[in-house]
Amino acid sequence: MAVAQDKLHPKARAIVDQLAGLPRLPTMTPTEARGRPEPLAAAPEAVGGVTARAIPGPGGPLPIRVYRPKDALKAALVYFHGGGWVIGSLEAADGACRAVANRSRCVVISIGYRLAPETKFPGPVEDAYAAVRWVADNAGELRIDPARIAVGGSSAGGNLAAVAALVARDRGGPRIAFQLLSVPVTELSSKAESHREFSEGYGLTAADMEWFGRHYVRTEADADEPYASVLRADLHGLPPAFVITAECDPLRDDGEEYARRLSKLGIAARYKRYPGMFHGFMSFANVLPEASEAFDDAGRALREALS
Description:
The chain is α/β, with parallel strands linked by helices. The protein has a single domain, classed as Rossmann fold (3-Layer(aba) Sandwich). The chain has eleven helices and eight strands. The chain has helices at 10-19, 30-34, 94-104, 123-137, 139-142, 156-170, 193-197, 206-216, 220-223, 252-264, 289-306, and strands at 49-55, 62-68, 76-80, 107-111, 149-154, 178-182, 241-246, 269-274. Helix 3 (94-104) links the parallel strand 3 (76-80) and strand 4 (107-111). Helix 3 crosses helix 11 and helix 4 (123-137) crosses helix 6 (156-170). It is globular, with a radius of gyration of 18 Å.
């Protein structure tokens, strides 16, 4: 048993222990993992409207969902779901997109990017950039201001959001106004202390991360690429950011380091660590007050950055 187990909030511990009863990812194929039951989460919130459609992508059409809150601002969040680049879906991200749309009053555009291992790095990166480019090019149709576009996502989706901002900078646009990153992957070959401290017994494990990485990148050299591990990148000229981290998450230190490095460059970036929480805590806003608080904080950060 991990020495830091007492750091997990009792309600969070109960959820993690329940999740431990599910089949473990390293024993499964990607197809099997995609069929693994999703944990019960809060009932989805009503929004002003949801539209499903497809947009052009580098490997074919990409499915998206557009969430429009009531009294929407002329601002948008391009959102990438989590799941280690291997699992996850538009449906799994539905609750989070609704919650963020309502709290930020921004139009949230959720992107169904191609998954690994069928599409390995850098395929999902190209999908993410293509989606951001499409949103900017179609701002009029979406009834948003092209100067008020943010990127965001959870876990591997947070990675793709940060990388999309990096690619947009490197390719001369579109301009990204803000990054909203929840428990993001910012380093694929991390040696950070949180990876050792929370390697087992907190939901996301070291073995899970190895499994995800093995399916996403072909080689260790790929894992070291800035478009895979954004902590390897020159971060000058990137947008402001709000990074949500969880105290008992192996990815915690890397997410916080990303915010610190941006801040050192004079970019308005900050992180907030939620005590006693685990990697996927925001999926349980019906049980964990900290998850509701995180959604409130995310909405406020977006609204202040884009309004």
